[in-house]
Amino acid sequence: MKKETICVHGSSYSEPSGALSTPIYQSATFRHKGVDEINLYSYSRLSNPTRSAVESTIANLENGIDAIAFSTGLAAITVLFENFSPNDHIIATEDLYGGSIRLFRTISQKNGLKFSFVDTSNLDLVKKSITKNTKAIFVETPTNPMMIVSSVSKIAKIAKEHNLMLIVDNTFLTPYFLQPLNLGAAIVVHSGTKFLGGHNDTLAGFLIFKDKNLADNTRIISKTIGACLAPFDSWLLLRGIKTLGLRMEQSQKNAVKIVNFLKTHKKVKKVFYAGLKDSKGYDDIKKEATGFGSMISFEVDSFDTVQKALKNFKMISFAESLGGTETLITFPANQTHGDVPKLERDKRGINDKLLRLSVGIENADDIIADLKQGLE
Length: 376
Description:
Elements lengths: L2 H7 L39 H14 L3 E5 L2 H8 L8 E5 L4 H11 L5 E5 L4 H6 L5 E7 L11 H10 L3 E5 L4 H4 L9 E5 L13 E5 L2 H14 L5 H11 L2 H21 L3 E5 L9 H7 L6 E6 L2 H10 L4 E2 L9 E3 L11 H7 L5 E5 L5 H12 L1
Parallel strand pairs: 2-3, 2-4, 4-5, 5-6, 10-11
Antiparallel strand pairs: 1-7, 6-7, 8-9, 9-12, 11-12
Helix pairs in contact: 2-9, 12-14
């Protein structure tokens, strides 16, 4: 089936009752008939029918062999990194979501893992960063918030040559626009809170696998740690995914119009969007993905403009998230990347003049009108 159809009809999971909307199995435990007649489900920390349905749907969308659903995206990454051992080395995209950086530096490094943060759009830097202890490459593309594109297929080739695990955070483009497993990645990560859920009403995270052994081992870790996605949240994700294709298409159309507007505004000095032809990595994303998404960052002329705009916007909400039906604007320097040292933020362009826009599905003219009056 095509992606649009999988979004609507879900997965290979079969609901016994025939319900079109998967029921919310709000049960912590399940009855067994006897010692030799164990139910497929026993305890919801291990598995739950509603969660199984959304896991199967995500696995199908990403063309993976299995998917595991978690309470948040960071919970998913935390569980995944329990596959590594002390002194293992991971190469990570430099311009990562601030929460991932905080996790790696405060938790993973404490547990003995070592990290090199590099510009993964620069293949030479990726190659030079490989050591005898390197086990994986963790890539976010486009990056948050500078929208830097890395080639999944080219990095996958490097990973294969050195027997490394390639992990790709696909939150921004979703499987609707990009399928990293088809390009050579071993694992895909999602913050399901964002575009997959799509309505700013729940938290979720996913890991999708190409290798069954790795998936099975991670399931054991997952059930041990217990950061599983609850039945009701699983149902919300299933409902949100039904409109994923429609939402991604509409928000991307809006994003293109907004980028063109921002490029001509007198107070906007730089625009960062993966779909700009003069942006680094444009040829790679054009070849590997079927869309550019709806995430935009832009730099204005002063911090004063930032302060006034965030107070003046009427329809656009100043909020720390993305991927919902509503257009949201974020100030990365003290929100998503507030825990990253200032010198590092400044080096990457995450300064006090940068704003990040998650374009929603409203009428594009209304979004532009609000941007215009807010920036004046």
